[in-house]
Amino acid sequence: MKLPLPLLLLLLLFSATTSAAPSLSPTPSPTISPVPRTSPTPPRTSSSSPLDPKQLKALESLNIPTLKNPCDHHHPSSSKKPPTTVVTCDTGSPFRLVTSLSFTNCSSDLSISSTALKALSPSLTSLSFHNCPSLSPPPHLPDSLHSFSAVSSFPRLSGLSLARLVNLTDLTVSSVPVSTSGLFVVLGNMHDIVSLTISHANLSGNIPKSFHSNLTFIDLSDNLIKGPIPTSITLLSNLKALNLSSNSISGEIPDSIGDLISLKNLSLSSNKLSGPIPDSISSIPDLTHLDLSGNQLNGTVPRFISKMKSLKYLNLANNAFHGVLPFNASFLKKLEVFKVGGNSDLCYNHTVLSSKMKLGIAPCDKHGLPLSPPPRKEDSSSDDDYSEDDSSEKKKEEHHGPNKAVLGVAIGLSSLVFLIIFMILLAKWCG
Ligand SMILES: *[C@@H]1O[C@H](CO)[C@@H](O)[C@H](O)[C@H]1NC(C)=O
Ligand SMILES: *[C@@H]1O[C@H](CO)[C@@H](O)[C@H](O)[C@H]1NC(C)=O
Ligand SMILES: *[C@@H]1O[C@H](CO)[C@@H](O)[C@H](O)[C@H]1NC(C)=O
Ligand SMILES: *[C@@H]1O[C@H](CO)[C@@H](O)[C@H](O)[C@H]1NC(C)=O
Ligand SMILES: *[C@@H]1O[C@H](CO)[C@@H](O)[C@H](O)[C@H]1NC(C)=O
Ligand SMILES: *[C@@H]1O[C@H](CO)[C@@H](O)[C@H](O)[C@H]1NC(C)=O
Ligand SMILES: *[C@@H]1O[C@H](CO)[C@@H](O)[C@H](O)[C@H]1NC(C)=O
Ligand SMILES: *[C@@H]1O[C@H](CO)[C@@H](O)[C@H](O)[C@H]1NC(C)=O
Ligand SMILES: *[C@@H]1O[C@H](CO)[C@@H](O)[C@H](O)[C@H]1NC(C)=O
């Protein structure tokens, strides 16, 4: 009877401390896995076929070590660093073929020869370059590509070389100057294009009159695009995001903009658009992000905007809107970001909205005209920032962390109390 007792106590103590320990520790780290996530490649064991010899040679010419299996190969690196070159292959036999190649932070002696690309070309569907600014663009990009990405790479790219990639579904060019007379040259034969990004690329010309209808994503921000938004763009009923910000686009927002029924993000900011906000915008059911700032839009701010259920980000700053802002505090509280400053003829009803909201516009007089010019200095510092929401957001977030810690401490303490009571009972029972 006496022998098992200390053992039992030890066991109890052990179980109590182990259950309390993880919840008491300040930084539980179950989500951080030491193994870096690799791209979804077929498991290596499923295919032991060697890589096609011609393609092996091509990889060697690109300075990719091929001693071991180059497929799923990550450039030799001290384990912590992300790989700079990633090769993925299919699982074919008798030979595997390279399907995707991605280069990041290329060394300056890298050069992509046409012969190497030709050898890889039949199977290569994805090619990407990230941060390889001095690399010369390959004279002939393989037309087998479904995805091509160049971010801060190459001194420049020609629109014609991109235009040859007729099987692309994804095109991303960012922070690379693209020389072409217009986007229509690039997109002319890309019938399958789904996602299009050409941003910060000095792209000139107009927005094309026709697009291929499967586009779901368009980002043409920060270029030199001129002319109007063609009405035909509103035929893209699958479009989820349209970003035309920071160009020189003029004219009015098409009345049919509401036909873009899948749209979630719309940014037309920093252009030369004029005229009113079309009523049809209110019929886009999932619009969450609407940025019309930095244009010459006029008319009144439409009341229907406050009925748009999904809206989280609304920027109307720096336009020429006039009249009384038709929003109440409960609508503005619902938004994560609201900016309306820089509209000198717009004012807010001070019986509806408090001056503490720092909207960057003047209160209205009884005729609905701005009482006084908005405080200029404050305007530039808090600009059109509506900061009340931000702070309440942060407060909400802070609540999550402590709760778990408190729970952990509670569990730990209660198991300790339980243990002590148990020990007292045991002592009494024995004695
Ligand atoms: C590339 O370089 C940048 C900055 O030099 C670094 O932050 C990044 O981790 C590098 N990426 C890879 C994949 O080596
Ligand atoms: C584009 O894809 C189609 C179908 O997959 C294929 O038949 C055609 O050869 C490809 N075109 C090029 C230029 O690779
Ligand atoms: C759009 O995509 C679908 C399925 O991905 C395809 O069947 C259809 O041909 C495409 N339409 C066009 C115009 O490319
Ligand atoms: C972009 O275009 C402007 C004006 O045409 C030119 O001054 C500038 O050098 C170009 N930038 C690049 C990176 O090509
Ligand atoms: C919309 O914009 C937000 C914020 O910039 C971004 O997080 C989100 O991924 C975008 N959604 C789409 C569909 O592009
Ligand atoms: C549009 O593009 C600009 C510049 O590239 C970027 O800052 C902004 O976040 C984008 N807007 C959306 C809604 O994604
Ligand atoms: C808006 O501006 C256009 C010119 O850009 C002008 O014709 C129109 O009258 C203005 N509308 C209002 C309501 O001020
Ligand atoms: C605020 O405006 C919304 C939308 O117009 C409306 O549904 C709501 O009743 C208004 N709330 C108050 C307190 O007036
Ligand atoms: C401001 O709101 C009050 C209460 O809703 C209303 O009676 C008044 O007419 C409004 N003033 C202006 C200028 O719209």
What does this molecule look like?
The protein is α/β, with parallel strands linked by helices and 431 residues long. α3 (114-120) links the parallel β3 (98-104) and β4. The protein is 23% helix and 20% strand. It has a domain at 228-374: Leucine-rich repeat, LRR (right-handed beta-alpha superhelix) (Alpha-Beta Horseshoe). It has helices at residues 4-24, 53-61, 114-120, 159-163, 183-187, 329-334, 376-381, 388-398, 400-430; strands at residues 73-74, 85-89, 98-104, 126-130, 147-151, 157-158, 170-174, 178-179, 195-199, 204-206, 217-219, 224-227, 241-243, 248-252, 265-267, 272-275, 289-291, 296-300, 313-315, 320-324, 337-339, 345-348, 362-363. The longest helix has 31 residues, at 400-430. The structure holds 2-acetamido-2-deoxy-beta-D-glucopyranose (NAG) (9 copies). The site of one 2-acetamido-2-deoxy-beta-D-glucopyranose has 4 residues, from loops. Residues 20-53, 67-86, 368-400 are annotated as: Disordered. It comes from Brassica rapa subsp. trilocularis. Residues 25-43 have a biased composition (Pro residues).
